[in-house]
Inverse folding.
């Protein structure tokens, strides 16, 4: 999976609401009927980069003995970025659909 | 140990970040156990390294090792050189050291060595955050033995009038 494509998918998942890392992964897989897969090795570099760039914030929730769950949510600039990418992608798919043979 | 754990363990990431990442993936795998055998790609490891390491460490890694070491030794040595310059200006301090005799010089040399070694380690661990195994090894014995040697030397020099 290309890095930019992965980032787009993660932004889409978080646009639906705050999620834990594994929920992002499950969401992408379920919504794409298994077409896209986002294992942890791909997911966490993307989430952490988005966090570092200020598109995502992370809060820590206690979860059982010595376990902490990190919940990721879009910031205002992250939401703007995600919505911008959605519009761009819609233009792209519309253009590709028009080019598709009859 | 799982492949991903070994990969993260080998990475030169600051330890709090490395531990947080390991905990986060462990929680992830409780919900997605089928991914347990997965490993990070080189590209993803490089990205994690880039995200979580300090700017100074990333900058250091662009320089040859020799240059980096020279810079670190210079930083570790600077406080000692400053102390020596200060001592040199104060006649009563020089007299105090002279009266201490050979023992005092030995104590000062060992103390200076220990001090600069600790400054070097503090710089690497706290400022650069180079948490490689070499830097994180808890080497308290050297400090303890060094301090004990200093005390013994001091006492011996006093007793022997050295």
């Amino acid at each position: 999976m290309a890095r930019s494509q992965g980032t787009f998918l993660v932004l889409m998942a978080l646009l639906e609401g705050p999620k834990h890392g594994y929920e992002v992964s499950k969401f992408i897989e379920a919504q794409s009927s298994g077409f896209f897969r986002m294992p942890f090795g791909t997911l966490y570099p993307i989430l952490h980069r988005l966090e570092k760039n200020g598109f995502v914030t992370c809060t820590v929730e206690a979860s059982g003995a010595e376990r902490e769950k990190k919940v990721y949510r879009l910031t205002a600039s992250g939401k703007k970025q995600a919505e911008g990418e959605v519009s761009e992608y819609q233009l792209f798919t519309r253009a590709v659909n028009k080019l598709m043979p009859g | 140990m799982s492949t991903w754990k070994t990969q993260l363990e080998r990475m030169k990431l600051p330890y709090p970040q490395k531990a947080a990442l390991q905990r986060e993936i462990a929680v992830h795998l409780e919900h997605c156990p089928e991914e347990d055998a997965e490993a990070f790609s080189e590209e993803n490891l490089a990205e994690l390294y880039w995200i979580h390491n300090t700017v100074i460490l990333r900058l250091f890694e662009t320089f040859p090792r020799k240059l980096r070491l020279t810079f670190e030794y210079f930083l570790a040595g600077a406080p000692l050189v400053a102390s020596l310059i200060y001592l040199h200006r104060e006649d009563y301090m020089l007299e105090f050291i002279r009266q201490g005799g050979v023992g005092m010089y030995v104590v000062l040399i060992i103390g200076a060595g220990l001090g600069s070694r600790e400054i070097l380690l503090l710089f690497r661990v706290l400022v650069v955050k180079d948490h490689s195994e070499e830097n994180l090894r808890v080497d308290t014995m050297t400090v303890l033995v060094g301090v004990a040697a200093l005390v013994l030397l001091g006492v011996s020099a006093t007793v022997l009038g050295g």
About this structure: Chain A has four helices and three strands. The two ends of chain A are 29 Å apart (CA to CA). The longest helix of chain A spans residues 76-99.
